Amino acid sequence: MTHFVATHPIGPAAPPVFASGWRPRMRKLFFGSRASTVVTVALALASGWLAWHLMLWGVVHAVFSTGGQGPEACRVPGAGACWAVIGEKLRLILFGIYPYAQQWRAALAMGILIVMYPVSVLPRMWNWRLAAAWPAALALFALLMWGGVLGLPFVPDDQWGGLPVTLILATLGLTAGFPLALVLALVRHSRRNGVGKALAVAYIELVRGVPLLAVLFLASVMIPLFLPQGMDFSKLLRVFVAFALFTAAYLAEVVRGGLQAIPKGQYEAAAALGLTSFVTTTRVILPQALTMVLPAIVNVFIAFFKATSIVVVVGIFDLMTAAKRAAADAQWQGFSTEIYLFVALIYFAFCYAMSAYSARLQVSLETGRHA
Length: 371
Known about the structure:
This protein has 371 residues and is an all-alpha fold. The chain has helices at residues 22-30, 34-60, 84-95, 103-120, 128-146, 163-189, 195-208, 212-226, 235-260, 264-272, 277-292, 294-307, 319-327, 336-370; strands spanning 161-162, 317-318. It has a domain at 155-370: MetI-like (MetI-like fold). Helix 9 packs across helix 11 (277-292).
């Protein structure tokens, strides 16, 4: 047998060199190849051209004040965006057809809700104080919007409009729909078959199988036909109930997806420790399931916050409807783009705040769970 002996043994290879820092990462991401470099340069040039023209239209040549000349100040040759229309129509956009002299009440009520949102995300407020603050805030909101007491003229809810209506529909609809969604998800996820599970499945599939528009029509038009004569509920209340019931069906499926992702060992470990079914569900299973599907839950919240604009079909004067009314003014024809951009900025601010908070909350929950 012939033996071969390596006279020049191969030494160990040097460890791979990983580029650190944002510059090498950006170079690899955008200029990693010739094709990538061409696409990057083309997109950069197109983006720069678009940004330059948008700046000319929206800032350099824009009209921010009419100077007492009215809409004609925006129609001079070479004029860009007419942001002055926002100042002229701001109260109509924000408060809709709410009585003009009483719009300070709508502004104060809207401010109460906007203040309560950041207060609600503070961990130190997650106790009895927050549970007491929200009913007080909602009661004050109703007092200001309806009036009829303390010398405030009564304003029926069919005269409400603008951003306060959008905020109260989204707040109450999503808040009321979430507990119902938890119950529906737990019942449908249960291993026990029975009437309750069959009803939960039927409800979820039925609601998710029809458009929101049909549910709103049913709530605003059909429900009064089944009520005893002389009994009626306000249209805003009926739309709120429709939103809560519709949202619950979608959230229930999202939560059920999180429940199905929990390993079976979690249930077995809880049973080995002697925990009851209620404690296991509320202290072990649900917190993990909600953490897993938190981005999906926030996605549903954002979708339904924007879907509040559809209530115009049943005669509710929300923010988007108020913007359309402002854009329809004959004197300011041709400047609807600026109005819709302003409304889009409002929607973006609220939606981005929800998205950013959910991402931050998920990181903190994941960190605490793996610590």
